[in-house]
Amino acid sequence: MTVILFLLTVAPLTLIIYSVVEYLIDTKNLRAFSSPEIAGLSDLWALRYHWTNSRYRAVHDAHRMLGPIARIQPRHLSFTDPRALKDIYGYSSSIMKAPSYDNIAGEYHDVANATDRAEHSRKRRIMSHVSSHKHILTMEELIDDVLGSLVKALDERLDQQLDLRYWFNLFTFDAISNLAFSQPFNFLETGSDLTLCHYTGGSTNSVNLTDPMPYGEQVAEAGIMLNAGSDTTASGLTNTLFLLATHPDTLAKLRRELYASMAPDAIMPDFNESLRLRPPVAIGLPRVAPAEGSTICGHFIPAGVTVSVPILELNRHPGLFPRPDGFDPDRWFDDTQLPNLKEYAVELLQDELAFVERFNMNPGAYQVRLTPRQGT
């Protein structure tokens, strides 16, 4: 018992002393960057907000208080200067994914968490045609089928109060499984996400005979398709519906436009504005400076320092977008705002979320735009 008490006392004290010494020695020259509270001294600040699922908001507030560069962990710098986007995530950048990606990967990496460039390039080469915009557009009919199931399920429950977020999640899982595996999970039909999947031998095998992907990798890629595709789409649909419901004038205007023209694209400005204001991926995805260091927005960043651009803060950057915290779909018709919207509204880049995962393909990013157009 005495030994346990001793360890419980000494271990925290040792960690505190180590953190203070590292902060004072400052081998990475990071004390020049301001930090909120104790974030520059200890990971406890980040852990606290991560534990309460509010880290994205804490980082957002830190930048509003400290400016375009904030030290949000002892060895983690967060940038909101728009130039940092290409410096960190650009195709020519030497900055790579943080080791934390290895922690979330299983025995096999998927295209999203592969940190090795050669492995990532190989996966991208194999998977690129599946997630291309052109290929996804040819599969609209499969999404139409599942969309019909969603409408049918909601019609059958018109006299009930429903959690639409739950139903959107069922819908996106069915849609992504129909796209990825040529058969839906039938969550919408049962009204539940509890199911037993049977895979018949040979029915879902890969056809890539020249450069086959091992079965374990196929499982990993299937998992990222379901996770990245379904969650982002469900979040986008839920947030758009919430914002329209809480802005009745905007909703009334949208209804008038739909009734007048029945144009599928009429809802896209509202949807794009929803993605800007409430992006499904709100955090800054971590990258690590290489051995030779890197220069970001004119600042030299030593090797091993983690860097990121928080998507929520960039999408609400007051220097890029007037009234950044307001829901204003009309900004998508404003010629003075369109250049910044197209270049910096992160969820809306031409390659969708490609920049945040370095050539990552995200079928959900395309589905998230197909769905509202089809739903009209």
UniProtKB/TrEMBL annotation:
It comes from Coniochaeta hoffmannii. This is Cytochrome P450. It comes from the Eukaryota. Keywords: Heme, Iron, Metal-binding, Monooxygenase, Oxidoreductase. GO terms for molecular function: heme binding; iron ion binding; monooxygenase activity; oxidoreductase activity, acting on paired donors, with incorporation or reduction of molecular oxygen. Transmembrane segments: none annotated. Belongs to the cytochrome P450 family. Its cofactor is heme. The keyword Metal-binding applies.
